[in-house]
Specification:
By secondary structure, chain A is of the alpha+beta class. Chain A contains 11 helices and 17 strands. In chain A, helix 1 (about 60-70) packs across helix 2.
Chain lengths: ~400, ~400
């Protein structure tokens, strides 16, 4: 199951300066694309954000080291095994995989960033991974974004891409990205995994700052099950091949950042739409809070509530469960008599009680829809924020009770 | 489904000074016991704890007022309707139901404490509730505890009782209680609903202090779905009919409190065992924390994780999901290389990585059991705490997607 149209972007624009190679290495299962290599043109700048889970995976630690050491030229991604909870041997595996790829391509090991996704707690099958590298390198080409989106999938049911071309200073600039993830999704910094590239020229510090801001409004605003992964990573490269220089501020920076935010939001929302067992795409909008933090506290309490999520699955306008979430979100001296709650364009709670105009039929009509907005109006300040989430279905339990078997 | 033996206490001792009457009022469904009246002997002391959900129900607000106003003589409990999210009309309904019962029995309305459980956001059917009161009062008798436990059930599949008789100063003292609840269970102060009575003589301030301490180690340590209810209440009465005076401290107080804690813990655990769709009873034990708060942060992160809960349902020793929870629980400067994790008596994670002695077969053997202990050793301090929870099954989704229909 998945919610909404599969292809967010109708056209996937290749990014000049980026080539992608895919291979079937048999990491976990045979006849499955499970190894993806990105090659960046010399001089590319790279920014990244990683999970804040303290049990972060070995590849996350190595990627951070290599990113600090210099300018990455290659990204190496495997599925089927997360290489997390594997201690020192896992770290050695991550380093060795970088060295093996670097040797084939003729760069330094520190110019490779490793990424892994899959089951936690198992060692990487290094022999099969290394054996798959030559095929991936031999396949490097510019128009392999869709294949790459397939190549990084695990419990995802469909590939996730977003691509935009905008004119900046009269010249076209491309931003294209892919993402994956359907479970263990409540990113705190970035989600597992997203790769975005542009052909603009962007200084590394600007790239990092803009990526962090963009992640905060996209991947850091989605949740499927509240479980922050050990492997989350979001990486952004600017190859400069378009020759368009994006300065730190001004109209060009604004245009570039707006395009980047759009691509990132689409990639993040694509993860929610393909959430494990998802039958609904739900936007939780909280307005009128004293600050962003309390808006998010209310929004996440609703988005993580198994009772709200099962009611969404049942298309049941059981709004008492939403109201109970607002009441337990921990807001200091909340005046519940000021709270309004909307389901789509139907006001269900007015001044803390059932809205006089509300009827079960009107609530049910909204809940039948595939895309639903829950809006909470706190009426105690000017802050607002929103998160995106899914329902909780039989298939969510099925997928997670059967994963690994 | 439910986990473990149904009857925690083999013998239910009536409590001298307490009579209970049950009626079928047809609040929500016909031919169902849905109205319970407790009558306390004059001079009884009463203590109570209530939900901290800010959208607390009308009966919770009225019960607090009446408790502050004097010595309660009656408790009035209905199922089928929570009278929450009902605004001023709901408050008026709660007051009117107290007045109606008071008139029949010949006491003041403020001597009645009202309690409701069921669907949120609907008005109480006052005509049917009031019409049911005379039958409940006519049925008042001392040995109706089991009937009362049935009479307060909603999605519960079985009644929950605990009863103890202990000798204090050479005389028998009885403590008997009932509880209900299977969903929207993550009490923060007390759970919806628990009624405990003793025939000892206890001063009201002592009773309140001991109840609060006992709730904190019982009902405030269980979670089924992380959803704190709007109606949680736990009430404790001491009728004094046994003539045994329990002073504020000393051996008699210690003996009484130990017995009270046992009854409360059994009632709280009975709720977890009957958790919606539960197939497992899970104890999450966190030791070696710097303080209780961080032990609880880790324990609740594990207990609320849908990924851990579905793995428990599948009897799958997918310990990477537990490890990921420890990593995202927000402990400052956690040294993951110090963390050990145990499943029952099997060490699965040693020093932050897979234990050398661990085999999947040993983990699977523990996960097959109905009662499972997950123990996390943080090795950074002397604090410890534990919570009790359930798995997440197909039936949890079924129950909550179909409730109300």
């Amino acid at each position: 199951m998945a919610v909404g149209p599969e292809t967010v972007s109708q056209v996937i624009h290749p990014v000049a300066g980026v080539r992608i190679g895919i291979a079937e290495a048999g990491i976990r299962k045979k006849n499955r694309r499970d190894l993806v290599v990105f090659e960046l043109a010399p001089g590319s700048t790279v920014a990244a954000t990683f999970t804040k889970n303290q049990f972060c995976a070995a590849p996350v630690r190595v990627a951070k080291e290599h990113l600090a050491a210099g300018a990455p030229r290659l990204w190496l991604v495997n599925t089927g095994c997360a290489n997390a909870g594997t201690g020192e041997p896992g770290l050695a595996d991550a380093r060795e995989s970088c060295a093996a790829l670097a040797k084939i391509v003729g760069v330094q090991a520190r110019e490779v960033l490793p990424f892994s996704t899959g089951v936690i707690g198992e060692r990487l099958p290094m022999d099969r991974l290394v054996a798959g590298l030559p095929a991936a390198v031999a396949n490097l080409r510019a128009d392999a974004w869709l294949d790459a989106a397939h190549g990084i999938m695990t419990t995802d049911t469909r590939p996730k891409l977003s691509s935009l071309q905008v004119e900046i200073g009269g010249k076209p600039v491309t931003i294209t990205g892919i993402s994956k993830g359907a479970g263990m999704i409540c990113p705190n910094m970035a989600t597992m995994l997203s790769y975005v590239c542009t052909d603009a020229v962007v200084a590394r510090d600007d790239l990092q700052a803009w990526l962090a801001a963009s992640v905060d409004q996209s991947f850091n605003r989605i949740t499927i099950d509240g479980d922050t992964s050990t492997n989350d990573a979001c990486v952004l490269a600017a190859t400069g091949a378009a020759g368009v220089i994006i300065p730190a501020r001004g109209p060009a920076a604004d245009a570039f950042r707006a395009a980047l935010d759009t691509v990132m939001r689409e990639l993040a929302q694509a993860i929610v739409r393909d959430g494990e067992g998802a039958t609904k795409f739900v936007t939780v909008d909280v307005v009128g809070g004293r600050d962003t933090q309390e808006c998010l506290a209310v929004a996440y309490t609703i988005a993580h509530s198994p009772l709200v999520k099962t009611a969404l699955f049942a298309s049941d306008p059981n709004w008492g469960r939403i109201l109970a979430c607002v009441g337990r979100a921990g807001l200091p001296d909340l005046d519940v008599a000021q709270v309004d709650i909307w389901l789509g364009d139907v006001c269900i709670v007015k001044d803390g009680g059932v809205s006089p105009a509300y009827t079960e039929a009107r609530g049910a009509a909204v809940m039948q829809q595939e895309e639903i907005t829950i809006r909470v109006e706190l009426a105690r300040g000017g802050a607002r924020d929103r998160v995106y989430t899914t329902d909780l279905s039989f298939d969510y339990v099925k997928i997670n009770a059967e994963y690994r078997t």
